[in-house]
Design brief:
The chain is mainly alpha-helical. The chain has helices at 12-18, 23-36, 41-65, 69-76, 79-112, 116-122, 125-134, 138-163, 167-173, 184-197, 200-215, 221-253, 255-261, 268-278, 281-314, 321-341, 346-372, 375-378, 385-410.
């Protein structure tokens, strides 16, 4: 039997990894680096490790069963519970699109002076981009996302070297927890980082994308999953590096300003204007272009996820995918347009959107862990004991952190 070339197994995680450095990540990373220096890098590292474990469960669910997470939730849980999961997924998609749309709008404003409201409307182009790519093949979409991933990687590596960070502090703070996390502000930003990194829509999307390799009949399910581990872990390592680079640049360039006069660089506009005189015009241009590319790419993947969620929960197989994408984009664009027209600060919008995502995450993570723990669903690919030992405490800790931040925000817990 002819063995397929190794590169044919790669691709689904290219699309997923884009969500790990979307504009929402930029917002939380900018705030974290500006206010706390390198000290929250370990939160980012921990989030990406947990994210890799979660995304591997998603691909395993799709490969083992031939169905995605949305389809399983609609079929295996009581109708009321499925509706809760669906509403949570829609809220998370709105929060995701809020981040992507605002990020693209700000990038277009920085580069071309386009008004934010018009930039937000322009983001609807991603619907047509997917439609165009679908006319070739799904691998065309994966190739475009690989280009996005590579482009932002190269741009932010250059940006990081230009900022001359303290590499020793970067290395240590990437793995050693800091006592800064005990502060209410740091905890709020940390949960935002988690929400920006492990995104609910990515769980639904990845479980669906993994099925594409199953349909191609490249190999048996166990072999496909082994290759998907490489696909996911390598892609998310690159995404972690980009994410860390954004935070590192913010810490190197903006944290000294905070230490001097207490100013936190919280807006993309301020970040752009501050980078130019401190580093160079080229650094500001790289920042804006990378933000635009990341925003367009993550907005496109979020639109794909919206299609998966609506088709899976509402069984809309007979409805045109283009109409589903267009309707999803129109619905999720509304909060972003309202926020922009009300003159809300873009980075505040983005940080809050990531906290909302983190609060919604357990509604996607809990069914994922329960399904992959179920021998009747997964068969021989059911979770190993060590996966249960890691994932259940991680899920519970995440839920507790979300409740603490929510309590601080509304005043139920001191420190908000």
């Amino acid at each position: 039997m002819h063995r397929p070339a190794w590169w044919k197994f790669f691709g689904p995680a290219f699309i997923i990894s884009i969500g790990y450095f979307d504009p929402g990540n930029w917002a939380t990373d900018l705030q974290a680096g500006s206010q706390f220096g390198y000290s929250l890098l370990w939160v980012l590292s921990l989030s990406c490790i947990i994210g890799a474990l979660v995304q591997n469960l998603c691909s395993k669910l799709g490969i083992a069963t031939g169905k995605d997470l949305a389809q399983h939730c609609a079929e295996r849980y009581p109708p009321w519970m499925a509706k809760v999961f669906f509403v949570s997924a829609v809220i998370s998609m709105m929060a995701t699109d809020l981040a992507e749309i605002v990020g693209v709008a700000v990038a277009l404003h920085l580069l071309f002076g386009i008004p934010l409201w018009l930039g937000a409307i322009i983001t609807i182009i991603d619907v047509f981009l997917i439609l165009l790519l679908n006319r070739w093949s799904f691998r065309a979409i994966e190739t475009v996302f690989l280009t996005f991933l590579t482009s932002v990687s190269v741009m932010y590596v250059a940006e990081m070297f230009m900022s001359h960070p303290n590499y020793e502090a970067v290395a240590l703070d990437s793995i050693i927890p800091s006592k800064d996390i005990l502060g209410a502000d740091a905890l709020f930003v940390a949960v935002g980082i988690i929400g920006a990194t492990i995104m609910p829509h990515n769980l639904y999307l990845h479980s669906h994308l993994a099925i594409s390799r199953l349909r191609e009949k490249l190999a048996d399910a166990a072999t496909l999953y082994r290759w998907s581990l490489w696909d996911t872990n390598i892609s998310l390592f690159v995404a972690w590096f980009i994410n860390a680079a954004i935070l590192v640049v913010a810490a190197a360039v903006f944290h000294p300003i905070f230490l001097k006069d207490g100013t936190v660089i919280q807006s993309f506009d301020d970040a752009y204007k501050t980078l130019v005189p401190i580093l160079s015009q080229g650094a500001g241009l790289i920042f804006a272009i990378a933000l635009l590319v990341a925003g367009v790419a993550s907005s496109t993947s979020a639109t794909l996820a919206g299609q998966v969620v609506f088709e899976g929960f509402l069984k809309m197989d007979n409805v045109s995918p283009f109409l589903i994408r267009l309707g999803t984009r129109a619905a999720t664009m509304a909060p972003a347009l309202i926020a922009i027209l009300l003159h809300a600060k873009p980075v505040e919008i983005l940080v809050w959107s990531q906290v909302v995502l983190s609060i919604q995450l357990p509604f996607a993570l809990l069914p994922l862990v329960m399904l992959t723990d179920n021998m009747g669903v997964m068969g021989a690919m059911v979770n190993a004991p060590w996966v249960r030992i890691v994932m259940w405490p991680a899920t519970i800790i995440l839920l507790v952190l979300n409740l603490v931040v929510l309590g601080q925000t509304v005043g139920w817990i001191p420190g908000g």
